[in-house]
């Protein structure tokens, strides 16, 4: 029995330029009662967050147009405090600290 009703589904906003990853996670979370919104870039992040009010944002650090850190700075500067998990392939400790 799924205790989550459709109107109570948590919403994850995934921001990643990798189309295959977005499709894989859409399937994974969809079968687990989680509503997943996806964006291929962060250029509309503030607009989508304001409209959709996700529970959490999962965002790639390295993206074209606007990188994840710049997008996060813009989001925080607007007063939004939505929790963010930053994904990165970078292994340097300084990259983790900055994130």
Distinctive features:
36% helix, 99 residues, alpha/beta, four-stranded parallel sheet, disordered N terminus, Rossmann fold
What does this 3D model show about the protein?
- By secondary structure, this protein is α/β, with parallel strands linked by helices.
- The protein has one domain (8-98): Rossmann fold (3-Layer(aba) Sandwich).
- 36% of the residues lie in helices and 19% in strands.
- It contains four helices and four strands.
- The protein has helices at residues 19-30, 45-52, 68-77, 93-98, and strands spanning 11-15, 35-39, 56-60, 84-87.
- Strands 2-1-3-4 form a four-stranded parallel sheet, sandwiched between helices.
For this structure, what is the CATH class? Alpha Beta
Shape annotation? globular
Number of E-state strands: 4
Helical fraction: 25-40%
Q: Number of domains in the coordinates?
A: 1
Number of helices: 4
What is the spatial order of strands in the main beta sheet? Answer: 2-1-3-4
Spell the H/E element sequence. EHEHEHEH
Which superfamily, in CATH terms, is the homologous superfamily? Response regulator
Q: Biggest sheet, in brief? A: 4 strands, parallel
